[in-house]
Amino acid sequence: MFQIAALMIMAAAKPVAPVKSPVFGQWQTKEEQGHRSVYTINDSLSLFGFVCAKEGCVYVVQMGNCVEGKGYGLLMASTTAGGTVPAACLDFAGRPTFFVDPEAIESLIDGSEIAFAWPIENTGFKVSKFSLEGARKAVAWVTDQRARSGATGDASKHNAP
Amino acid sequence: MFPMIAAMAIAAAAPSTPAPDQASRWLLYPDAQRPLMAYVANEGGDQLQLDCTQTCKYRLVLAIPCIGGTTMPGIANGEAKDVPVSLTCRRDGKWMILDIDGPDLGELFVGDKIAFGMTSPDELISIKRFSLAGAKEAIAAVKAQAAH
């Protein structure tokens, strides 16, 4: 289900003029044809977001250049918890993007900050940190918007606390 | 009894930083004649060890605190491949001693370096990198002694 939702969202990622863009802390919102998203961008211009389409919702992370079509193990940690999670690298809005199952991140976004790392060549790691200020409300907003549009599925788990 | 004493001695001795001319190269403890442990230190004083005092076990000794018994996820990244690992804190205190569980780390000992990414209470994610200079010989010596 997660893979299908990720592929459908990827296919739907065609930017159009935004309709309405509320802001939650450090998190922006964007409403585009086929999907709605909330996201934050750090000082390194890496992006962490939550994207919902009719088919479902996924977390996305844009940092570095992962190889599209390849699977990775992402190390992630917030001020509340940490873990490793499988992530698929797919094209999203023209950039290689990690797609992560919402359930894997759900318990982490209540902290103040989250970090991701993935192993790269020559024993290196690409590490990116993101603010979680407003993340919970932003995720609730996009989930609510999706529910209002009549879609059901994975995103129903992301209700406001 | 001896292995326990040796293990305690190793644990007590391990965090000491090698002399500058010995840093970044794998060493044997207590000596080359009867090595019980192979280890290497990095510039920050962290250590990667293969301890064969009892059963052979890879572990990290880091200068950051952890809570005894807790387990944290990590990724070991060698020049040929990377694998997920589980790091278990063995004791509280100034030094974090982490037993490394996961696929055979031997496959990662190829090339010049190995790195570990792990969750960290203060930095969220911490990266520790170690030299593999002399690793093959040191590890073989310790394993040979353990099998003896």
What does this structure look like?
- The complex is a heterodimer of chains A (161) and B (148).
- With 161 residues, chain A is of the alpha+beta class.
- Chain A has a single domain, classed as Sandwich (Immunoglobulin-like).
- Chain A is 18% helix and 42% strand.
- Chain A has 3 helices and 10 strands.
- In chain A, strands 1-2-3-4-5-8-7-6-9-10 form a 10-stranded antiparallel beta sheet.
- Chain B is of the alpha+beta class and 148 residues long.
- Chain B has one domain: Immunoglobulin-like (Sandwich).
- Chain B is 17% helix and 39% strand.
- Chain B has a 9-stranded antiparallel beta sheet with strand order 1-2-3-4-7-6-5-8-9, sandwiched between helices.
- Chain B is globular, with a radius of gyration of 14 Å.
- The two termini of chain B are 18 Å apart.
- The chains are: A alpha+beta (161), B alpha+beta (148).
- At the A-B interface, β6, β7, β9 and β10 of A face β5, β8 and β9 of B.
Tell me the number of structural domains of chain B: 1
Strand arrangement, major sheet of chain A: 1-2-3-4-5-8-7-6-9-10
Q: Give me the CATH architecture of chain A, please.
A: Sandwich
CATH class of chain A: Mainly Beta
CATH topology call of chain B: Immunoglobulin-like
Mean pLDDT of chain B: 82
Shape of chain B: globular
Biggest beta sheet summary of chain A: 10 strands, antiparallel
Distance between the termini of chain A: 25 Å
Number of helices of chain A: 3
Quick one: overall form of chain A?
globular
Order of helices and strands of chain B: HEEEEEEEEEH
Give the strand tally of chain B.
Answer: 9
Structural class of chain B: alpha+beta
| Strand residue percentage of chain B | 35-45%
Q: Which architecture of chain B per CATH?
A: Sandwich
| Number of spatially distinct domains of chain A | 1
Report the C-alpha radius of gyration of chain A, rounded: 14 Å
